[in-house]
Amino acid sequence: MIQFKHPLIFSLIILFLLFFMDGNAQYYSSGQDPASQRWNQINSENFQVIYPIGYDSMAQYVMNVMEYGRELTIKTKEIEPKKISIILHNQTVISNAEVAWAPKRIEFYTVTPQSVYSQEWFQQLALHEYMHVIQITSMNKGLTKFLNYFFGEQITVGIFGLYVPYWFVEGEAVVSETALSKSGRGRDPNFEAQLRAQLLEEGKYSIEKASLGSFKDFVPDRYHLGYYLVGQAKAVYGKQMWNKPMENIGRYPLGVIPFSTGIKTETGLNKKGLYEKTLLDLSEEWLKQLLATNPKNYDVISQNINYCNYSNHTFVDDSHIFSLKKDFHKNGEFILIDTAGNEELIYKPGYYSSEAITTGGDWLCWSEMQYDARWNYRTYNKILLLNLKTKEKKTLLKKTRYFSPSLSPSGNKIAVVEVDEFSQHSLVILNRENGEVLQRIQSIDNDFIAHPAWSPKEDIIVAEVINTGGKGLALFKLETGRIQQILKYGDVHIQYPSFWENYILFEAAYSGVMDVFALDLATKSLYQTTETAFSASDYAISPNGKKQVMATYTAQGKQLVMQDWNPKNWISISNVNNRAYPLADILSSQEKDHFITDSIPQEKYEVKKYSKFAHLLNIHSWNFIHLDANNARINPGLSILSQNKLSTLTARLGADYSFNTEAMRYYGQMTYLGWYPVMSIGGDYGRRYAYEYREQDTLKHYYNETNINASIYLPLNYTSGLWSFGFRPELGYNFKNLDSGPELTFTYNHIQSVNYSIQVSGQQKTPFQSIFPKWGYALSLMYRQSPFNESLGEIMSLNMAVYYPGIFRHDGFRIKADYQDKIGDAAFYNDVTAPARGYVGIDYDDMLTLRIDYKVPLLYPDWNLGSLLYFKRVVMGVFYDYSLIPDAAVNVSYPNDHFWSTGVDLTTDVHLLRTKFPFEVGLRSTYVNGYIKNLEAFQFQLLFGVSI
Question: Is the separation of the CB atoms in 263 and 271 below 8 Å?
Answer without folding.
Answer: yes
